[in-house]
Structures are given as structure tokens and as C-alpha cells.
């Protein structure tokens, strides 16, 4: 009996001490907590945001949920019903949790649970939860060159811009995944490629015959993955015949031009009389009469002279 009295006295003393220091026992105030302050969900799958009431004295507290996106708040649960863009897509579950039936990418935001208890000494508490909805990647856009020459450089590209968070990229050659570092694989140790998993680029510094084949890219994040259709890349040796034909064509073109210029010179298209060129004035022909010199004093008849 004495021990019980002493225990009661200690409890009373502790209460007085806490009250004098400004501390309020949890039974006299509303206190909230959550299982996760940062929540991830997959698109089109259900997710529950927890708002647990650890202590409360008020029988019918006022519960509200707000969605805060880009700094602008809007109601999610107000006056005992779901509101806003979650209407018909969510429900309140005891004690104050919000269950979203099919989360979408537009649901990515911060959510604030507020509980007001007028009968409690601490009559209000709130808790903030961040929701991020993962989005599965769509089929990426892939660019694979149809044909390249041995020893040249080339790049294969892969891009997807719907997935959230941003996906990582992987490349496959003849249905076998290419390792990020070819030096770590005996099969690809002599390859000169490099893969950027963030941008989806596959670069070859020097293409080999062994690099020919079918390629496809895969974009993947925590929500899932998607891949582009297979595309064929062919690798050719140096085109000796093509180079010879180009050189031969250039030589033939040059010869044709030279012949054309020579022919034009022969026709006099480029002839121009020079200043130093001699001009010969031949004497005019007489019409059958030939006059003698002035000192002869007479003229002579030619055979063509007619009397």
C-alpha cells in the first residue's frame, strides 16, 4: 500500500514538472505520423498515403488533405468527401489515410494531411508526404546506320522521353547484351565501342567486320522497360572498285575538257589578231591593162586588149 502511494506521488510530481516546463503529455494533444514521407508508386497502380493519428482526445476531428503542386495547394479531401482531380479515384481509409486507386503521372506532388481536434490542448497537427509516380518507358526511337565501312567511325542512337524517372539505356547485338565496358568481356575485348547509358548513344571509333549484325536498344527504369525493333547494320570492306571508278571518271572528264579546248583553238574561237602581226597589202589586179613606167613614154598592148 505504501509503495502504491509512493508511485502515485511520483506520477503527480512528473505531471507537475512536465507542465511547468511546457511539455504536454501526448494524451492531451493530437499527434500525427506517417510510415513514409517519400512515397513511390507505379503508374496505373494503387498507392496509399498514410496519416496515422498517434494520440487524440476529440471524438470527431476535422480531417483534410491538400495537394501541393508547383507551390499551389488544392483540396483532395474536404468536408468529408474526395475533391479535385482525385474525385472518383480515391477514398479516405481509417484513421486518415488516402488510398489512390490508379495513380497517374499527374498525381506526382506533395500531399499534406491536416487534423484539427478542438477538444485537445494541442488542437492541430499536420504532416507532409511527397508522392512520385513512376512512368514506364515507351518504345524508344532508335537510329542504326544501314551500312558502314571497315575502319570508319559511326554512332547508333536511342531516345525515349516519356519514362519517369529517366530511363537507363542498354544495347543488344544479335540478341546478346553489349557490356558497358567491352574490356570486361573476352568476346568484345577488341571492340572499340562505348555506351552512354544516360543518353543512349553507342559509338564505334573503328568499325570491324565482326560489328555487323542486328541491333536494338532497351530503355528501362523502375516502372518497366521497352525496346525498339531490331535493325540491321552491314559492314563492308574498303570499296576499291568504287574508288577506281571515281578516279577513272575524273580522268575521262579532264580529257574530254582538254579535247574540247583544243578543238575550239583549231576552229579559231580563241584567235585574236595581235598588234605586232604583219599585214600584207597585195597590189590590186588591173582589168586587162598594164601600164608601163612613167619614163617609158608609151604603153604596151596585152593580148587581152580589145580595139
From TrEMBL:
GO biological process, one term: cell migration
Pfam families: Ig_3 (PF13927)
Manganese found in the keyword field: no
Domain Ig-like: 25-130, 137-233
Membrane topology qualifier: Single-pass type I membrane protein
InterPro entries: Ig-like_dom, Ig-like_dom_sf, Ig-like_fold, Ig_sub, Ig_sub2, JAM-C
Keywords (A to Z) from UniProt: Cell junction, Cell membrane, Disulfide bond, Immunoglobulin domain, Membrane, Signal, Tight junction, Transmembrane, Transmembrane helix
Cellular localization per UniProt: Cell junction, Tight junction; Cell membrane
Signal peptide: 1-22
Residue stretches spanning the membrane: 240-262
Family stated for the protein in its record: Belongs to the immunoglobulin superfamily.
The protein, known as: Ig-like domain-containing protein
Species assigned in the record: Oreochromis aureus (Israeli tilapia)
Lineage, uppermost ranks: Eukaryota, Metazoa, Chordata, Craniata, Vertebrata
Amino acid at each position: 500500500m505504501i509503495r502504491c502511494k509512493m508511485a502515485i506521488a511520483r506520477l503527480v510530481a512528473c505531471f507537475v514538472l512536465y507542465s511547468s516546463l511546457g511539455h504536454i503529455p501526448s494524451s492531451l494533444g493530437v499527434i500525427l505520423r506517417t510510415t513514409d514521407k517519400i512515397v513511390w508508386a507505379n503508374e496505373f497502380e494503387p498507392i496509399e498515403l498514410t496519416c496515422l493519428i498517434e494520440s487524440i482526445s476529440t471524438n470527431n476531428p476535422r480531417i483534410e488533405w491538400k495537394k501541393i503542386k508547383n507551390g499551389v495547394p488544392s483540396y483532395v479531401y474536404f468536408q468529408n468527401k474526395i475533391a479535385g482531380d482525385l474525385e472518383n479515384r480515391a477514398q479516405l481509409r481509417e484513421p486518415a489515410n488516402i488510398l489512390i486507386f490508379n495513380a497517374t503521372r499527374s498525381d506526382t506532388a506533395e500531399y499534406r494531411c491536416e487534423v484539427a481536434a478542438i477538444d485537445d490542448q494541442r488542437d492541430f497537427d499536420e504532416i507532409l508526404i511527397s508522392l512520385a509516380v513512376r512512368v514506364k518507358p515507351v518504345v524508344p526511337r532508335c537510329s542504326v546506320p544501314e551500312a558502314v565501312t571497315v575502319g570508319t567511325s559511326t554512332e547508333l542512337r536511342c531516345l525515349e522521353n516519356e519514362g519517369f524517372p529517366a530511363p537507363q539505356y542498354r544495347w543488344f547485338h544479335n540478341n546478346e547484351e553489349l557490356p558497358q565496358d567491352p574490356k570486361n568481356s573476352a568476346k568484345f575485348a577488341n571492340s572499340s565501342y562505348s555506351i552512354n547509358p544516360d543518353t543512349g548513344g553507342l559509338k564505334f571509333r573503328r568499325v570491324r567486320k565482326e560489328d555487323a549484325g542486328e541491333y536494338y536498344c532497351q530503355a528501362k527504369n523502375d516502372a518497366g522497360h521497352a525496346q525498339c525493333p531490331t535493325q540491321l547494320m552491314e559492314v563492308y570492306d574498303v570499296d576499291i572498285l568504287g574508288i577506281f571508278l571515281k578516279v577513272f571518271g575524273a580522268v575521262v572528264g579532264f580529257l574530254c575538257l582538254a579535247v574540247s579546248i583544243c578543238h575550239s583553238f583549231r576552229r579559231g574561237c580563241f584567235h585574236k589578231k595581235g598588234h605586232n602581226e604583219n599585214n600584207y597589202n597585195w597590189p590590186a589586179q588591173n582589168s586587162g591593162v598594164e601600164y608601163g613606167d612613167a619614163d617609158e613614154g608609151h604603153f604596151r598592148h596585152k593580148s587581152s586588149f580589145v580595139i
